[in-house]
Amino acid sequence: MDEQMTTTAAPAPAVPGLSPVETSARLAGWALLLAGFGHVLRAGWEWALWTAGEPASGPPDQGEGRHRPLTGLENSYHFVTSLAAVTVLICAVLFIGWLWRVRDNSVALTREPPRYRGFWVYLGWVLPIFNLWIPRGVVADVYRKSAPGRPLPAVLNVWWVLWLIGLACGTGLMYSDGPDRLIERAYTEGWSLVVSEAVMVGAAVAGFLMVRAVTAAQLERIASLTSAEPSAEPSAEPSAESPAGE
Predict the structure, then answer these.
(1) Mean pLDDT value of segment 50-76
(2) Strand-pair partners of 63
(3) Calpha distance 142→217 (Å, rounded)
(4) Which end of the chain is more exposed for a tag (fewer CB within 10 A), N or C?
(5) 174 pLDDT band (50/70/90 cuts)?
């Protein structure tokens, strides 16, 4: 797909207002996979906590503001959780940067206003209720404007369904529970945490494929408009030669 994105990119866009998106798409795609890797790491530690079993001293949070010293495994889980949070932050920044570019390009291609105002590119992810459909709607609007008449790629819906399941499990952007609470959950219901992590890994992979599909469709549209523009020049040559022949 990298080759497709490269070969279909226009060297000089025929439509004013277009921004290059190939690099942004690659960064967003790889950032999604990086975030998925963060979930893989966290799943590994949650599985380890589950199989190790809770210490006799009980969970880290003893209640009433009392916390016992962490074990080595618990302490390393805190580190892995922080590392995974960094990958999610990187992913969020790069993904939104890509989404903003392709959204602006889709408007330049059609000269039609976007379905959702610009602030939804950011707030659509964090506002309760609205985050159930608006981010997908922004991406779908970009694709429809970039590839009019084509059905939405199936991977877009796969990505979004997995993302919603992750939200329901509390793993969509960040865990709703803190590390100590997660450790407690891992000791008693570690399997559910691992399943939640697997869902988010699937969402990351589907998101990676979705970014490439949307970007490739937009680059193909740009390339078709660019290649069509020079075709007017050869058509004028016969009319210029005709008087000379007479």
Answers:
(1) 86
(2) 66
(3) 10
(4) C
(5) low
